[in-house]
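Quality-control log, excerpt.
Job 1 of 2 completed; input and output follow.
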Amino acid sequence: GVQCNGWSVHVPSDVTGELGKMVILPCTFTHPYKTFDRALTAIWRIKEPYNGTVIFKCVSQSSSELCKTAISHKNKYKLLGNPRHKDLSIRVDSLTWSDSERYFCRVELAGDSQDKYESRNGIKLHVVAAPRIINITVSSSRDHTFQARCTAEGEPAPALTWTGPLYSNLSSTSSSSHRVTKELRSLTHDGKYTCTAVNSHGRAEGAVYFYKFRASDSSSFMILIFVPLGIKVVILLVILSFTVFSR
């Protein structure tokens, strides 16, 4: 907490939330008045204090009136605390990766221009997630070789491993923020190839099946063509012989 002339703001330095779920950002404060019945404004902003983007704002005109929401970006921010009870805590719904920001709470009391206070260091929100396989494919290159590619996301960024039939150890890994891709090159053996993604919050698996087309040799190809043709000729001769015999 930070105190100045009877003012103080108390927030945790860090809060962790899970992707797709909700999280609560706590904020409480004190002011130098024993009672206060004038207009009160609660504000939350992101990225930086004082000049950051406002993502939530509510106003209460008197102690008997609830704080009416004036701004709630994308309608995902809800007031949980009661500003009249010195509590500005909010709930953030449906967390996305972009919600990983620093949040700052602010209170403004109508009257003297100095009756306003804001958390200077704010709260760092960390969005975490168990791994999820988002793409897994097998493709061919211009040099007629085959490779399997697996892309997963999670936070912390997951570690990827390939398992399956005997294969070359040629592989490459690339990552960007919470997303990781690992490519397995020069596939030569048929079968099932499994990609496993693991981080501290869980694991996920995805699989692809690789079967390389092999053309039949010439002798087998000739047999496949002429055996059915020979059978048809024999059947035709039998039918003609039967017809002649009947006549």
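Job 2 of 2 completed; input and output follow.
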Amino acid sequence: MAGGARELAGYLAALAGWVAGLAAAVLPQWRQSSYAGDAIITAVGLHEGLWMSCAAQSTGQVQCRLHDSLLSLEVHIQTSRALMVISLLLGFFGIIVSVMGMKCTKVGEEDPVTKSRVAVAGGVLFILSGLCTLAAVSLYATQVTYEFFRESTIPINARYEFGSALFVGWGAASLSMLGGSLLCCSCPAKERRGQQYHQQSQPSAAREYV
């Protein structure tokens, strides 16, 4: 029962991490216009993400525009895009595989050892998904930090800083890796040894009875 509860907790955490990763990939707030400095004169708030850039007026109107060209984008944006897509794909397959391997489900093999192995495979997929999300978000954050602090003629209140999507991405990576680690705790070694002992003890018991 304890193993099943641990698997369920890991699956729910990893599922929440995948949903948060999907939200982070879609949100345009990967970086936002800075409000630092002495002269804060901003009637328009600028946000940029992996897929679009948005401008929020002081009146509440928001206008967004998709990035026109893929090849004209900066390298860190293209890399973050690719890593987030890979992360979402790995997480999607991890959701399917984990359902088949969890003890509380009747899907797939009835052998507990085989199901444990499948659950571990799902946990590995979730961990890889979390690592891809972590790499994508950290790479983008590193570039934002570099552009903010480098010497430039751009005023400090006209530069960009971290957006809310980065923090959502870091949380998604943490949940995915935590959930995957809990699923990987379903090690089938003990169950396999127990089954072998049970099979070896049955013939000896039969001989003693005869």
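Post-run check on job 2. Confidence is low (pLDDT under 50) at residues 191-201, 204-210.
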